[in-house]
């Protein structure tokens, strides 16, 4: 293991929904829900985007990442709704924009995709059963 411990790899592999945070020139954060793919071999996060009618793959977070190629991703859930046991993982790192190959990341996805290369990882309570 390099960037992630065993529990973090398992947690990221069990989920597909996260929240991506970026900032543009204003410095104001922009947070959006995204579907991600964890690549455990390369220890990176891959984020594709659906092709939407009338705007294709145009997204504010993509524009932000062309200006400031740093991103944060939170993947979290509640282990037990009865006792409110939140758990999750926070990943920060460089974002690399790709213009081809994103179609394999999901149905209806276009060629553009983002690869987040972690340089900071922290997690909480992910060893608690769901």
Automatic annotation (TrEMBL):
Pfam families: PNPOx_N (PF01243). Residues 10-102 form the Pyridoxamine 5'-phosphate oxidase N-terminal domain. This is Pyridoxamine 5'-phosphate oxidase family protein.
């Amino acid at each position: 293991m390099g960037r992630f411990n065993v529990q973090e790899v398992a947690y990221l592999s069990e989920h597909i929904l996260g929240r991506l945070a970026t900032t543009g020139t204003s410095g104001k954060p922009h947070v959006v829900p995204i579907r991600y793919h964890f690549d455990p071999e390369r220890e990176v996060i891959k984020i594709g985007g659906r092709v939407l009618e009338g705007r294709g793959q145009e997204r504010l977070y993509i524009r932000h990442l062309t200006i400031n190629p740093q991103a944060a991703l939170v993947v979290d859930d509640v282990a037990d709704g009865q006792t409110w046991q939140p758990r999750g993982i926070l990943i920060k790192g460089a974002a690399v924009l790709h213009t081809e190959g994103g179609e394999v990341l999901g149905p209806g996805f276009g060629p553009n995709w983002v690869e987040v290369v972690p340089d900071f990882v922290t997690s909480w309570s992910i060893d608690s059963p769901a």
